[in-house]
Hints:
This protein is mainly beta.
Amino acid sequence: MSQKIFTTTNTALSCAVLFFSTLPVAASVAAQSNTSADVGTQEMIVTANRLAQPLGETLAASTVFTLDDIEAAQAQSLLDLLAGAPGIQMARTGGQGTQTSLFMRGTNSDHTLILIDGVKANTASEGFARLENIPVAQIARIEVVRGPQSSLYGADAIGGVIQIFTKQAAHSDAEPGLSGNLSAAAGTESTYNGSGGFNLRGTHTSLALNVSHQQTDGIRPIHTPRPSARRSAYDNDAANLSIAHQFGNGAALHGAYSLTDSQLEYDGGINNGEGRTAHLGLRLPVTNSWQSDLQVSRFIDESVNDSTFASLSRTERDAINWQNHVQLGDNNSIVVGADFESEELLYEMSGATQTDTTRDNGAAFAVLDTQFALSNSSVDTTLSLRYDDNEQFGGKTTGKAAIGTDLGDNMQLWTSYSTAYKAPSLVELYVDFPGFFFFGNPDLQPETSRNVEIGLEGNHAGARWSINAFRNEIKNLITTDASFSSLTNVDRATINGAELAVSGSWLGWDANAALTLLDHENSDTGQELLRRPNEILSAGISREFNKLDVGLTWLLRGTQKDVDPVTFGTSSVAGNAVFDLAFSYQLLNDFGLQLKIGNLFDKDYQVVDGYNTYGRTALLTTRYIF
């Protein structure tokens, strides 16, 4: 396979031409993703280096979704919200609530670490988070950092990190009082959504409660080999209670408890999901230049499948995170800390215990940020190092080195080299599925990766743009074996890629565009990795007309390899392009209406071979703010 990432296919070339043809318009547009938030502002991000810093100064490819971005998107799921972001490919096996996979920069679905308010949400079973059960109505902000981040967060971050911030109690310095919101929605496929929340702010203490409900009849998920006899109806109920307190010496205490209950119906059974997350954190200013943070958390995920092959999967994880940020003068800082987690997996199949296993992991890490002048240019460097001691696989050291320089004319050039690793999940190691003739492999070894990247970004005439190119070599990649009966380590997989993004504002119009190009190969077979299109192009344009906002988005996916649901051989899924149209109308200062039309032209397409996707949909939402 060619390693020239810009010449993978004729489609890639066409996408690139189309992308750059949008620049005269999109070059001054405010987007709803990474380049959007910091056009003309100092939007901050904490996930890129485990400390708050301006988004435009990070030496990592990053995307931020603010609350305004999330509400404007009118997304019903994380798939709808994240699908157009640079470097992200998403796949779902049917409608709302069905299994949703996220491939960051072409890596596996369990190579992206998902954090919810700083708490790891990847399960100990499959190794990925249950994205389909995270309600958008509970989310206040999302930060996406692309590229390996094991030197900051340990395992599970070969592809990158996504941190989800839920709606929490306001900071104590906010004006005392009561505020809140209510929303109700109805749409096609008998979809009904509702959410509400309040934030009670005192002089030093704040309390917040947010609740949400989703229900839909869904669609018939399976297309081949035998069409589904019933729709995959889905229900989701969620709640989040949080508290924040500011002490007189500048210390702060924060805590939250969230729960999610879901139910998915499908041919042959029902899947019930339950999620519980709790955390309590203390921020202490030790000196004027030293801040210490301590957080304890507990995460529970349970999935009960009531079908012919009934199963129970339950993850319990307790964690302690201690982090210290020390400012060394005006231009240097260091972050040092330690993490410890203990996780337990209980997995039962047809009433028999497959595994009841615990695994501990302890780690220490350090991040050094420096800035200095060189030949009239500002130079930034980031060095990070982490050592993990895994109870099962022993010690592992990962690191990252990044350097960037100011080129003048509002442009920055940076490059980085990083290493990462991923331990096999407990299901991959020990759980057998005899009813499906699929078996775990206790001989699996951890996956490791080396990534080199270069980025160029700028801000001109109110528009922000970025170009990133990377090469990620993954050794011992875990994938299905040739007989599709177990898992095995692949000698090596290579992923080359490029990402281009632009956003800004022009003559009252807001617009954004993002292009992702990938060239990936399993070195053992010479074949492309599955369910990763080589080209993804997204674009959006919107405008405010007095009280009416109108937005149009477009998502194009290239052809991808998959598994044929009948023969289990390699198949090909055709590329597709889908348009969405959104309206928002502010009737009163505190009351508004929204209308989202998904798949505007009723495109018939597939993302996963053998599984249906939604046709044209509509959702009408009312919002009240107090």
